[in-house]
Amino acid sequence: MPINVTPIPTLDDRINDIRMRTARIINEEILPHEEELWRTAVPPTSPTRTGPRARSCAPRSSPR
């Protein structure tokens, strides 16, 4: 879902320009690669991953 930004009349033109350019960068450079970015951001041992390298996030019981 793209970020939709419209100029805010009460803001300085420079600030509105920054907002518009930031939204364009996010829409063109970041959002199309979001899946890849999330895939590389999650460590292989994170409990949100599945598979042989994933570990449980349940606390280990201590030996008595």
Task: Characterise the protein shown here.
With 64 residues, the protein is mainly alpha-helical. The chain is built from two helices and no strands. The radius of gyration is 21 Å and the shape is elongated.
What is the gyration radius calculated from CA atoms? 21 Å
Give the CA-based shape. Answer: elongated
Cα separation of the termini: 53 Å
Number of helices: 2
Q: What is the strand content? A: under 5%
**What is the averaged pLDDT score?**
79
pLDDT below 50 for ≥5 consecutive residues: which ranges?
none
Structural class: mainly alpha
Number of strands: 0
Order of helices and strands: HH
Helix content: 40-55%
Largest sheet: number of strands, sense, barrel closure: none
Summarize the structure.
The chain is mainly alpha-helical and 64 residues long. Helix content is 41%, strand content 0%.
Give the SSE map.
Blueprint: H1 13-30, H2 34-41
Features of this protein?
64 residues; mainly alpha; elongated
